[in-house]
Amino acid sequence: MTQENPTIKIASVQMGVELKDPEANLARMVDLIQEATSEGAQIIVFPECVVTGYCLESREEAAEVAQPIPGPATERITACLQDLDETYVAFGLVEQDGDQLFNAVQVVGPTGLMGSYRKVHLPYVGLDRWIDPGDRPFEIIETPLVKLGINICYDGGFPEPSRVLTLQGAELIILPTNWPEGAENFARHVINARALENTVYYLSADRVGTERGTRFIGLSKICGLNGNTLAEAGEEEETILYATIDPEPARTKQIVRVPGKHVIDRIKDRRPDFYGDILE
C-alpha cells in the first residue's frame, strides 16, 4: 500500500472442496488465485479446511491429510505468488504439530509464511470433534497492506475474538468458514455485526457443495465499517467476491456523521469497568 493509493482490493473465494485431496484443492486454488490477481486482488481469502476438507470422521483420518505449517501447502502457494508484488493469500487446512492436530489458517505472501492461527472455539461437528483447541492467543498478522486478524468459523459467533483483535489494531478481520445448514442467520447477520461493533472490515469465505451428506451454504460476504454489505454470494455457486477498502478509517475508528454534532467511536466510548462479568 502506497501513500498515493491507500486503498487495497480484497477477495473472498467461495468454492467447492474435494475431501482428502490436497493436490486437487491446491491446484484449484492456484487457478483461482490467478483469476483473482488478474482482477487486481491483493488479499485473497479461501475457506476453512480448503486444502483438506472438513467432514473427517476420526482423529486418525484427520492425521492422514494434516500438514505442518510451514509445509507443502505453504510452498505451493508461495511459488504461485513469487512473481506478484504485495499479494497475500489466507487459507485453511488441518495442521500437524508433533502429536497435535489443529484447525488452522495460514497467511502466505511472495516470500513465504506471514503467520498462522489455530481455531480456539471448537463446535461438536465434523473435523472439530477430533482435534485440539487452539493454544495461541489472538494476534494480528502484519502485512505491508493491512493489519489482518483471523477468526475461523465458530470463532465468529463469539464477540470477544474480534474485539481482542480490534484492540490490537486489526483493520481487516477474516473468517474462513465451513457453514453447514442451520448457520444461515450467522452468515446473513453476524458478519455485519462484527464489522459494525469494531469499526473494521470483515470478510467471510465459505465453501459450497456437499461432503459426506453435509451441505455447505455459501453466503460468503464482505462488510464495511458501518456494518454495510459490500459484496455477498448466494448459497450454491462458486464465485469470487471483491471489494476495495481503505484501511485508514479502520485505524482512526471515528465515524463522523455530522461534524461537531454526531460522532461515533465504538472503541473510545467503551466502558470496560462495567464488563467484569465477561471474565467470570
Structure description:
It is built from 6 helices and 16 strands. The protein is an alpha/beta fold and 280 residues long. The protein has a single domain (8-254), classed as 4-Layer Sandwich (Nitrilase/N-carbamoyl-D-aminoacid amidohydrolase). The strands form 4 sheets. The chain has a 6-stranded mixed beta sheet. The protein has a 6-stranded mixed beta sheet with strand order 6-7-8-9-12-13, with helices on one face. Helix 1 (22-38) links the parallel strand 1 (8-14) and strand 2. The mean pLDDT is 96.
Layout: helices, strands, pairs:
Layout: E1 8-14, H1 22-38, E2 43-45, H2 59-65, H3 72-81, E3 88-97, E4 100-109, E5 112-118, E6 141-142, E7 147-150, H4 159-167, E8 172-176, H5 184-198, E9 201-205, E10 208-211, E11 214-217, E12 221-223, E13 229-232, E14 239-245, H6 247-252, E15 255-258, E16 262-264
Parallel strand pairs: 1-2, 2-3, 7-8, 8-9
Antiparallel strand pairs: 1-14, 3-4, 4-5, 6-7, 9-12, 10-11, 12-13, 15-16
Look up the CATH topology.
Nitrilase/N-carbamoyl-D-aminoacid amidohydrolase
Report low-confidence residues grouped into runs of 5 or more.
Answer: none
In the CATH classification, which architecture applies? Answer: 4-Layer Sandwich
Helix content: 10-25%
According to DSSP, the number of beta strands is 16
Share of β-strand residues = 25-35%
